[in-house]
Amino acid sequence: QERTRIALELHDELQQTLAAFRMDLAQLADRRGAAAPALVSWVAELDRLAARAVVSTRRIVNDLRPPILEDLGIVAAVQALAAEVSQRHGITCRVHAGDEVDEALLANPPLVTCLYRLTQEALNNVTKHAGASQVDIEFSLEAGGHVRLAVVDDGRGIQLKDRVKPGSNGLVGMHERVRAQGGTLSVDEAGGGGTQVVAHLPLA
Length: 204
Known about the structure:
- By secondary structure, the chain is an alpha+beta fold.
- 62% of the residues lie in helices and 18% in strands.
- A five-stranded mixed β-sheet has the order 1-2-3-5-4, with helices on one face.
- β2 and β3 (146-153) form a beta hairpin.
- α1 (2-32) runs antiparallel to α2.
């Protein structure tokens, strides 16, 4: 809830302020440009900096709480994520999930964010380290009020050295996210090669 609140504050306050600032810069350049040519260059540089700040703010807002989660739900958000990975890296990404997953998660936004970040980090690891050509992402509901997420690739498979190497913050972060939601996470070699990331998380 706090991440969502901060994201809204950044969007509604900071981005609007930066937009107004850029409009004022444009008016300043129009009014004084002819009389002070050097001012035009200076104002243009200020505008470039402001534009970069807008882009950075948008990225931070998206990292805090991806808008697509609010608008379309976890399944559509992950499908968009998979499509981006496919387009950028040439890896076939398939998402398996039914409408019942979104319905079951409606009352638990923090869990939705957790599942999205787990998928995002798992795909990030695939593109960086796995050398995979295909990834399957599956959401399913389990007995006892749990949701299961599985991300399975056909790459080289995770090794022991991958788990303990310095800087492996991605795996640590995934475990921490799952633990915070009261769930369990396993990262193992998949049958036939590749790596499988499997999370079980309570819906309540």
